[in-house]
Amino acid sequence: MFQRALALALIALFVSAGAVAQKEPKREPPRTKKVQALSKRVANQLNDVNEAMLEEDYATAEKRLTAILSSKKLNSHEESMVHRGFGYLHSSREQFQQAITSFDRALATGGLPDSIALNTQYLLGQLYMLTERHERGIQILTDWFGKAENPAASAYILMANAHTQRAAAAPETEERKHYQEAWRWAKQGLDKMETPREPWLRLGSQLNLALEDWKGAGHWLEQLVPLWPKEAYLKQLVAVYGQLEKPDKALTIMELAHLQNFLDEGRELVRLSQLYLYNDVPYKAAVLMDERMGDGTIEKDQKNYELLANAWMASREYDRALAPLGQAAQRADDGELWVRLGRLHIDGERWKEGGTAIRKGINKGGLKNRGEAWLLLGITQFQRDQLGPARKSFVEAAKDPKTRSSGRQWVT
Hints:
By secondary structure, the chain is mostly helical. The protein is 73% helix and 0% strand. It is rod-shaped and about 120 Å long.
């Protein structure tokens, strides 16, 4: 595809001195210079080269260009055009270093009209970028921008990409300034963009992400997602909405990603469940967590069991919260979740189960409100007519300043 495009660009290149090889970027130089004309003989020979290139007969094209160049009667314009033809030939063969040499010679010979010289300089800059010599490419294109009138959007994007590559290769202390320069060029290209182009919008979002401009990144990602709903864009937009504290929008995009089966990692599904819960859709959170913990996609650890329990409780499915809350309590480092489980049993008047859970919490320790735990344990014992143990529990509760009054009242 690349080779064919380069070959097609040779159409009419050598027909006259004013021919322009490419339509984009089309330039009207501020000044023009007179150049020597192509002789009829050389023009015909270059047309033959054209035909061979269009047929992708590169061997014949090379022989014909070599034959033209061997002539001792070429003027500077003819010689420059032949070197330029070699540049296209080498590009078509993906011999990029040789193409650079040929385009350099075409410019150095000095026989190109201003418009073609500018076009050739632009191509040369592209080749330096392609061969990852971004510094030299930037130098050439900076000079080109100084001469060209009304550069196309693609030229600005090319420069932005070059500075982005510089940033990627720069020391960490210098990254930001290169990203800022890349964004300066990208912004101009994006402002001139007539129809959305995925690589350009992606570049805009990447540069804004690199500069931690979340609002700017969101602007470009919001254009990318409807047109190209790819996994990377969806996940990036979710992250941006997180930074912008827009959980409702994050949920919408996360659901879209889930519907397209882009969320295949447990942590991503947990994030979706958290967003459901945050946005007051707890039942969906609970069902998702329950299903994907069941099939092993989501890890069965304390935090995830606790999230599942919270989702069931927020859905008022209290009985379904008991098992995951118990699993979370078993895995916790302290007894807080055991006490919480006990309180849930107490709410359902399951006094024995509640007392058992709270006792486990007290024994495990690390409680933030130990007095409350003793108070709750005493209530479960009192409800089961275990008055002696209940009195001891209330005495323990009375030792804590926070529950002293309630503990004494129960003792009384």
